[in-house]
Design goal:
The protein contains five helices and five strands. By secondary structure, the protein is α/β, with parallel strands linked by helices. Helix 1 links the parallel strand 1 and strand 2. The N and C termini lie far apart (86 Å).
């Protein structure tokens, strides 16, 4: 018995027994250029002014690029003093934290928006700080957060994952800490 041979169909021609037409390619959006949002929910990167922000940004850029989404850069700041107004995301301290990620975002051509999260004053419980961070992400419509595995205290990936599981979302991705490399002084020649 011989196997029938099939010739490929010309582009745009559908089979007679097909119940659905072949989807047409989507026209590019005017907002889909480099450095612009493509209309998707942002991926959040939690930045805490630490060396571990580097792997957080790298992981968030990979996720945002794969999703065609912009980034939300959440700067974790110390608690506000009593009766102080919340700082605008363009404040000098916030710009310093977020600014360290900007060269990587410029190379990737990904749009970004800054946001600020002030840690709660006093003791908010083990999951209190993580819940507040998730509130900021939810306010911006972020379905995914990238958080450092190593901290800061009460905002490490494990604690934020636990708070997200209790809350029912968003998805939290853990970025590995920067590997520790001991400083090596050159041996004196003698």
């Amino acid at each position: 018995m011989t196997t029938p041979s099939f010739s490929p169909r010309p582009e745009g021609v559908t089979a007679m027994n097909s119940s659905r037409p072949r989807p047409e390619p989507a026209a590019p959006s005017p907002d889909s250029g480099p450095g612009r949002s493509r209309g998707r929910s942002p991926v959040a990167a939690v930045l805490a002014d630490r060396l571990d922000d580097v792997p957080v940004v790298e992981a968030a850029v990979r996720l945002a690029d794969a999703r065609g989404a912009p980034l939300l850069l959440i700067a974790v700041m110390p608690p506000l003093p009593p009766r102080a107004a919340a700082r605008h995301p363009a404040g000098a301290a916030v710009r310093a934290v977020v600014g360290r990620a900007l060269p990587r975002l410029a190379r990737a051509g990904i749009a970004h928006t800054p946001a600020v999260y002030h840690r709660p004053a006093g003791r908010a419980g083990r999951l209190g700080a993580a819940k507040g961070l998730l509130d900021v992400a939810a306010a911006h419509g972020c379905p995914v957060l990238v958080v450092s595995r190593s901290g800061p205290v009460e905002l490490d990936a494990c604690t934020v994952m636990e708070a997200a599981a209790i809350r029912g979302g968003p998805l939290v991705r853990a970025a590995p800490p920067v590997p520790w490399v001991p400083l090596v002084a050159p041996c004196p020649e003698g």
